[in-house]
């Protein structure tokens, strides 16, 4: 991608997602000369617990608006290519990065000085502390090495038939002529795919009673997590490593069903071993020959099921939320899908994940001082990579708020300029599976479903745990399905 600089920013709307296609973000301006001075996003001014909590809540619920406004304010000032803040009740002092050079420094740093901070994320109390997502160091390396082969190359090809079957089922259940939240339809598809990868179920109908109950409880957990009470519970849980309050109550129901599935499979012994991830975990041994405990397996399963389906489903929903508001792009995409134009489909998915990254932020812990363009940051600071801001830099993406898949045609993507799957040794484990699902689900919908385009305002992004999802689930109306 080329860097070009033009006029000052014109993002004159209260919410970033309503910015017109020609608006500039202001992010990516060269700094004036002068000593680098970190720019405060939230100052230490408000030290009263209530003020701190309202800042935390605003950051959780309006992350994009907060960051875009702060980044535009500081753009072009010395040190303005990073934002600093400190939210009491949150992770403590933090720096927000959105410059590819800073991000590369961070992502390629040794894990001993910049480990993942996922164990402090809102997901940690839910998935537990022993999973590939939340562990660090040697344990993370082992967990990742164990699981990686299941999410790469040939293994993903093995899931293809399941992805196609789940997509067919999803289309069959889609009512014509009625508004539907595409996230719901896509979620059923991606949940089926990940459940069969994890639990080896050829079809949901063939699941045992315990497995069906577990699926139901997981769906209930997801539905509850969209409510305002859940957002509040998320803020409350930021202070604790283990779940408390409402979250604890909800999780204990889900956990009971997971442990029931585990004991069912353990009881089946050799006969219970299938070609699935649960079997892999049940037969795994650590360096001393000990099997994984039930809690360790539970944490891993919960991680894979949660990380593995909601993200993908909401990427499908965002893709069509954008397409139905851009009739010209939608027509081009349908033609491309009908002609099996894989390059266009890939560019479309890149553009969709650029403008609406479902995981808008990833975190690392700075255990040593880091130099970001002359500002020394750390130790003991959380570095948050704002994927959302990175993806809207004027210098990398001219007209950053426009939805233009062709910008990615014939372009070799730089991994520090487009990073919907994060980066470094913590890059999304399931990215190849996610891409396979997205190609099939988005491609099939483009080919077989005629969607009504419309001019209603963009859906408001809603922040749920670590994800940014379409506020209404990506509402679309199918005029016909063939
Ligand atoms: C479009 C869909 C998806 C998106 C946008 C996405 C995004 C991400 C991101 C941003 C991270 C954090 C990376 C970092 O810290 O640098 C991550 C981690 C992870 N994702 Fe995904 N993901 C998707 C689908 C999946 C799927 C299908 C799975 C399947 C199991 C999965 C499993 C994981 C796991 C296990 C991790 C933790 C990796 C580690 O810490 O080593 N994700 N994902």
From TrEMBL:
Record keywords, A-Z: Heme, Iron, Metal-binding, Monooxygenase, Oxidoreductase
Residues binding heme: 428
InterPro entries: Cyt_P450, Cyt_P450_CS, Cyt_P450_E_grp-I, Cyt_P450_sf, Cytochrome_P450_monoxygenase
GO molecular function: heme binding; iron ion binding; monooxygenase activity; oxidoreductase activity, acting on paired donors, with incorporation or reduction of molecular oxygen
Cofactor needs: heme
Source taxon at top rank: Bacteria
Keyword Heme: yes
Entry similarity comment: Belongs to the cytochrome P450 family.
Listed name of the protein: Cytochrome P450
